[in-house]
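The protein record now logged underneath.
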Amino acid sequence: MTPDFIQSELKTYKFNVKMTCSGCSGAVSRVLEKAKADGVTEYTVDLPTQEVVVKGTLPYDDVLARIKKTGKEVLSGETV
């Protein structure tokens, strides 16, 4: 069971990322998989909707920077 103080720090972010092929979504998946060591607990990368949802304790700006590092354009992002 997750302690309450950790649970309260979990955040969910939703990004609209310009991805045109499975290579694009794969690149985003790879950086988010590596980010699990730093606080990402789970993520989904949906190529048809170009939506990336990330859950974890990593700050929004850090997640955004990692996605941008792939070279993909982040059209929008929000905390949900």
Q: What stands out?
A: The chain has a mean pLDDT of 92. The longest strand covers residues 11-17.
